[in-house]
């Protein structure tokens, strides 16, 4: 397989049309069609379904697209890394973050990059863990910062960096709103706004409640910390968070413990690719431990 053919194929998958793919690559349409035909002959599978509404990948085509992204991204990254081998780190690092982790990680990381690697830019993509890990696998992202435990993806390295204390938020007017701290066993009668099953945030809650001798009563399931806060302000329930949200509004923040339940945070990367991820990982370690 030739990289130029894989680029043409990816352009068709991403645009849905041969004409648009040709325009993106500054080629004639016949060259794009020939590239896809060569791949189909070589692999002996149908990669695209041609419809009036556009071209859609078959199941085999989806699988090739996943590998093609990795190969194309790796080739581009290799050129970039070799050309600046003896220079100061520069260019753009692509970082994946869970939405909940943005206020915890992004401000101190930006300050550290500005101080130590001013020529290095940062592109941030927010998403859920499965999406971020797939983008690390295909080299669309250099690193993804995650909560642990998380689903493992073959070929990637996972680094757990630190444990941090958890907090609880309650609505204004709650029976505990005047307190600064609370023990988990005092929350047995509460209803919780939390995350879907198997999400790390849900696992932390279940583990903390189990250690306190009870099972949590789930009032609502949400996807982000912002949604959690809205539900808490509406007095649907209380919530456990891995960081302290901005004060004010309709919630109060309570410290937990002792014993203090904690969450684990770290990152994933592809050790085969190296590059800017190697430069930034020490800074990220410092940020996550601080």
* Strand neighbour order, sheet with most strands: 4-3-5-13-6
| CATH architecture name of the largest domain | 3-Layer(aba) Sandwich
Number of alpha- plus pi-helical segments: 9
CATH superfamily of the largest domain: Periplasmic binding protein-like II
* Cα end-to-end separation: 46 Å
Give helix % range. Answer: 40-55%
CATH-derived topology of the largest domain: D-Maltodextrin-Binding Protein, domain 2
Q: Tell me about the largest β-sheet.
A: 5 strands, mixed
- The number of distinct structural domains comes to 3
Amount of beta strand: 15-25%
Query: Structural class of the secondary elements?
Result: alpha/beta
What is the 3D form? elongated
Mean pLDDT: 86
TL;DR?
The chain is α/β, with parallel strands linked by helices. The protein is built from nine helices and 13 strands.
Primary descriptors:
alpha/beta; Arc Repressor Mutant, subunit A; D-Maltodextrin-Binding Protein, domain 2; 4-stranded mixed β-sheet; 42% helix; elongated
Structure explained in plain terms:
The protein has helices at residues 3-15, 18-25, 29-43, 59-83, 102-116, 129-137, 200-212, 225-233, 276-289, and strands at 48-51, 54-57, 91-97, 120-126, 143-148, 157-165, 167-171, 181-182, 191-194, 217-221, 239-241, 251-256, 262-269. By secondary structure, it is α/β, with parallel strands linked by helices. It has 3 domains: 3-82, Arc Repressor Mutant, subunit A (Orthogonal Bundle), CATH 1.10.10; 87-162 and 264-289, Periplasmic binding protein-like II (D-Maltodextrin-Binding Protein, domain 2, 3-Layer(aba) Sandwich), CATH 3.40.190.10; 167-260, D-Maltodextrin-Binding Protein, domain 2 (3-Layer(aba) Sandwich). The strands form 4 sheets. Strands 4-3-5-13-6 form a 5-stranded mixed beta sheet, with helices on both faces. It has a 4-stranded mixed beta sheet with strand order 8-12-7-11, with helices on one face. Strand 1 (48-51) and strand 2 form a beta hairpin. Helix 1 (3-15) packs across helix 3 (29-43), helix 1 (3-15) packs across helix 4 (59-83) and helix 5 crosses helix 9. The relative contact order is 0.14.
């Amino acid at each position: 397989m030739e990289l130029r053919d894989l680029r043409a194929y990816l352009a068709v998958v991403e645009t849905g049309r041969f004409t648009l793919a040709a325009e993106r690559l500054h080629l004639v349409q016949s060259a794009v069609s020939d590239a896809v035909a060569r791949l189909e002959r070589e692999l002996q599978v149908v990669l695209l379904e041609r419809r009036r509404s556009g071209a859609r990948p078959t199941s085999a085509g989806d699988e090739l697209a996943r590998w093609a992204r990795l190969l194309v991204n790796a080739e581009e990254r290799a050129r970039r890394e070799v050309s600046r081998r003896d220079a100061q780190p520069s260019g753009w690092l692509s970082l994946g973050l869970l939405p909940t982790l943005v206020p915890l990680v992004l401000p101190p990381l930006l300050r550290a990059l500005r101080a130590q690697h001013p020529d290095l830019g940062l592109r941030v993509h927010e998403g859920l863990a499965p999406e971020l890990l797939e983008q690390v696998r295909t080299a669309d992202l250099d690193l993804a910062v995650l909560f642990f435990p998380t689903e493992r993806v073959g070929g990637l390295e996972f680094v757990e960096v630190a444990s941090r204390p958890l907090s609880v938020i309650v609505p204004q007017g709650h029976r505990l709103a005047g307190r600064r701290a609370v023990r988990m066993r005092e929350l047995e009668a509460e209803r919780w706004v939390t995350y879907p099953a198997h999400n790390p945030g849900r696992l932390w809650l279940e583990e903390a409640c189990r250690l306190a001798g009870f099972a949590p009563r789930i009032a609502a399931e949400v996807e982000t910390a912002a949604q959690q806060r809205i539900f808490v302000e509406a007095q649907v329930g209380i919530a456990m968070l891995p960081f302290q949200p901005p004060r004010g509004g309709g919630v109060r923040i309570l410290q937990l413990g002792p014993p203090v339940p904690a969450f684990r945070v770290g990152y994933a990367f592809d050790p085969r690719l190296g590059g800017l991820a190697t430069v930034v990982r020490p800074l990220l370690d410092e940020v996550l431990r601080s």
